[in-house]
Amino acid sequence: MSTSKKRLNNDTRINQNALKTSHIYFDLFKILPLLLIVGILPFIIRLKLVPLEGPFYEFWNGQSINPDFFTYYKQIFIYVVTAWALLHTFLFTKKIKFTKAYYFMGAYGFLVILSTIFSKYPQIALHGFNERREGMWIILCYLLLMFSTINLVETEKQIKAIIYTLGASGAIISLISIFQYFGMDIFTTEFAKNIMISSEIQSQVKDFNIKFGEKYSYGVFYNPNYLGGYISFYALLMLSFAIISNNIRERALFAVFFILSMFALYGSRSEAGVLGIVGAIGLLILVFTARYIIKDKPKEEHKKLLLTRFLPILLSLIILPVSLSYIPISDNPLTRIRTEAVTLFQPSDLKGKDYKEIGPINDIKQIDEKTIELKIYGKVTRLNVDKDMNLNLIDDNHKLLFNLKIEGEKQSSGHILGITEYPCYINIVDKGNSNYSIHYYYNDRTWEKLDFLVSNGELSFTTPSFRKVDIQKDLYAKHIGFEERGKLASGRGYIWSRSIPLVFSNIIVGSGQDTFITEFPQYDIFGRQAENMPQYYWNILTDKPHNTFIQIGIHSGLISLLILLTGIVLLIFKSIKSSLNEGNINITIAIFSSAILGFLLSSVFNDSILAITPMIYILLGINVLGIIKSNN
C-alpha cells in the first residue's frame, strides 16, 4: 500500500474518531439540564430572608420574615433548568415520541391546574408555601422534565451519564452525611457559612445552627428522613449497576457508592429509608431471578449466576440489618419499625370516650364578644375584657380573681390561679393598631399555653400566629383510624388520622398545591390531648402530612392520586415484564423501576420535596423511554 493511501486511511480514522467524539459531546450537551437536576440541585443551599404577607403570614408561626435556606433558590433553579430542557427538546428532537404515558401526565397536570383555579388560596397554590414551594408551577415543571427526558434521552451512553452524575452527587452527599454522624458537619464551618449566607445578611444574623442530636445525619436535605428517602432509590441504583456492569472498574466504583450510601442511611436512622431499600431489593431479586435464571438459562449456569448476581444482593440484605443493630435500641429504625407494627394492631381504649374529659383542657366557650370561658383541670374561669380595657379573670362564682390593664407589653407575676401546682401567668404584647396578643400560660414548666387576641375591645381565641379559631369547629377534628396511635412513627399516626378525611373531601379537585397547612385542623386541642401528644406539640404548626400520597390526594384531589398511582404501577409492571427480553435497556429500566418502588415505599413516611422529586420524574421518563425502545 502506498504512503499516500496509508495517510488517507489514517486521516479517515482520525476524522471518524473526531466525529464520534463530537457526537458524544453533543448527546451529553442535549441532556445537560437533566444532569444539572440529578447532580447539582440538592446542593443549592443559600439563605433568603423572605418577607411574609397575606396567607403566607396568616398561616405561619407569627414571624413576618422567613429565613429560607433550602427551597427559595431551588425553586428558581428548577424553573430555569426546566425552561432550558424544553428549549433543548424542541431544538434537538426531530420527532416528539408518542407514548400513552402522556395521557396520565396530562390528566394529572389538568387536575393540578383545576385545583389551583378553585383553590381558596390561589397565591399558595401557584407558588407553594413557606419552606416547601411546591406550587402548581413546580408540579408542572416536574411533568415537563419527564416529558423532556422521554424525548431528549436517546442512547445508553446518555443514560449512563445520568447514572454517573447521580452516583457522584450521591457519593458527596453520603460523605457529608458520614462526617455529620461523627460530629463534623460542614454546614457549621465558616467556609459553608460564607457560601450559604451573604455578607449583608451575615452582618444581621450572628449565629445559626442546624442540629438533630448527636450521631445523626441529614446530608443536604435539612431532615434525616429526607436523606433516608434519597438513599431509598440511590442505593438500589448503585447496587444494581455494581452487579450488572461488565466493566470491573465500574463495578468497583458503584460498589463504593453503594457502601457509602449505607453508611449515610446508618447515620440518618430513617425508618422510611430502610423500608424503601428492603422493598426495592425484594423486587430486584424477582427481576434478576426472571432475567438470569428462569429465562432460557441452562442449569449448569445457575451456580455462576447465583454467585455473580444474587450473592451481592443477599450480602447487602444481611449487612443492612447487622450494621443497623449497632445503633442504640431507642434510635434503631428496625427496632422502631417492629415496635410500631405491634402497636398498630393493639386494641384502642379511646373508642366512645369524650375527648374533653381527658384533659387538662376540658372545655373552651365563647360567651360573648368580650368573654371566653375556660375549663382547665376541671376548674372554670372566665377571661373578660371590660370597657376600660382591663383583662379580668373571673371564677365560676363570678368572683374577680385577677385583673391587668391591657396596654404596652406586660407580664403578670406570681401564682395568679390555683389550678395547677405550677405558677400561671399572663403575657400581653402590643401588636399595633389596637391589637394585643395574650399568652395565657397555665403551666410554665412545660410552656403549656393558650393564645388570645384583643382587637378593638373584643376578645378572640386564636392560634399561636393569632389567626382566629372557630371554637365550635376547629377544636375537635374529624379523624379516620389510628385511634390511640397518635405517636405512631413520630406523630404521623395523629397527622394521618386527621389528614385522611381531607382526602375524601377533595375527590374531584383538591385544595390547591401546598395548601395542606390551610386545610389541616391546626388547633385540634381535644384530639391532641386524647392522643397523649406532648402539649408543646399543640402549638407546633403541621405544614405537611408526612405522606406523599395523602399530600397529592389533598392538594390535587383523590382522582389525581389514583391517576398518578395507576400510571406508575402500570409503568413498573411493563418495565419488569420487559426485563425478560434481551438487551441492556430492558434490564436498565427494570432496575429504575425497582429504585422508583423504593422511593414510593419511603414516601409513605415522607413528603415530596424540591431537592428529590424532580429526579424521580427523570427516572420515570427514562422508564417510559425504555418501554418505547423495548416495544420497537
Explain the overall architecture.
The chain has 632 residues and is of the alpha+beta class. 53% of the residues lie in helices and 12% in strands. Strands 3-4-5-6-7 form a 5-stranded antiparallel beta sheet. It has a 5-stranded antiparallel beta sheet with strand order 8-9-10-11-12, with no helix packed on it. It has a two-stranded antiparallel ribbon with strand order 1-2. The mean pLDDT is 84.
Specify the number of helices. Answer: 23
Helix/strand/pairing category = alpha+beta
The tally of beta strands, per DSSP, is 12
CA(first)-CA(last) distance: 44 Å
Strand content: 5-15%
Shape category: elongated
Integer average pLDDT? 84
- Uncertain segments: none
| Helix fraction by DSSP (H/I, runs of at least 4) | 40-55%
**Quaternary organisation of the protein chains:** single chain
Report the C-alpha radius of gyration, rounded: 29 Å
Strand order of the largest sheet: 3-4-5-6-7
Report the major sheet: 5 strands, antiparallel
